[in-house]
Amino acid sequence: MPYFLVGAGGSKSATAAKWHYNKSVSPYDAKYQRTGPDGGWIDHVEYSYDVIAASWLELASARKILPNFVDISRSDGIAVSDRVRRALAALEPDVHDFRPLPIRQRDGTPWPEPYWFCNHGRIPKVEAIDLERSSRWVRWDERVIRGRRFLNGVIATDRDPPEVFLDRNAIAGHHLFGEARAPSALAWFFLSDEAHAALKAANALAGASLGYVGLSGA
After folding, report:
1. CB 14 within 8 A of CB 71
2. N or C end: fewer C-beta atoms under 10 angstroms in the chain?
3. Per residue in 97-114, pLDDT tens?
4. Of the candidates 212, 213, 207, which has an alpha carbon nearest to the alpha carbon of residue 65?
């Protein structure tokens, strides 16, 4: 059964880490746009390399331990530990875009362990959600933005049996992936069973808020 990556949340997450970047450079790659003409989100954000290379995180409060997933405020990205990067890279070599991201305490002390910026724009997107079986919770948005329509709704992860389903055939071979028809503002990302098992074996799930979704198809 796949897992829905709700985000880097929970009591063990270092939320509200402030993202510092060079404000003289746009934080978004020119070929992606954050908002449409009516304010609607039209694509997933992909950060340009010069912005990521010059950025760093400042923790909101002094910490002795960091989780493996850290929310980055003012961005569509998350920071992940080297355990997460290595586990995902072993499953999907040369697929995900991880860039070094320095982390500092509020007093400027560098965090001793490496963390990485996981670029949401480079996570593979597939038409993962089985709309027929998930129609109570996920449906087409009525708005059309630059000729495109997007899904809207809620990924309900607390139902037993589940009421949101992914298409088994569509997600085959993917381990960390997003829904191609979801606007970037919703950031619907999922983990395969194999990815979840690999992260658990590496003790790399702390900080990740996960929910269950169903699986449909032969």
Report:
1. yes
2. C
3. 888 888 888 888 999 999
4. 207
CA 133 to chain centre: 24
| CA distance linking residue 93 with residue 67, whole number of Å | 23
Tell me which amino acid residue 179 is: E
**Is pTM beyond 0.90 here?**
no
Distance, in Å, from the CA atom of 87 to the CA atom of 94, rounded to the nearest integer, reads 13
Of 64, 60, 49, 48, which Cα lies nearest the Cα of 19? 60
6 CB burial (10 A radius; 0-12, 13-18, 19+):
middle
The tokens 């949340």 sit on which residue?
A: 9
Contact between residue 163 and residue 134 where contact means Cβ atoms under 8 Å apart: yes
- Asked if residue 205 lies in contact with residue 90, where contact means CB atoms within 8 angstroms, the answer is no
> What are the pLDDT digits (tens) for 122-180?
788 899 999 988 877 888 877 776 677 778 777 766 667 788 899 999 999 999 998 88
| Angstrom distance (rounded) from CA 89 to CA 198 | 11
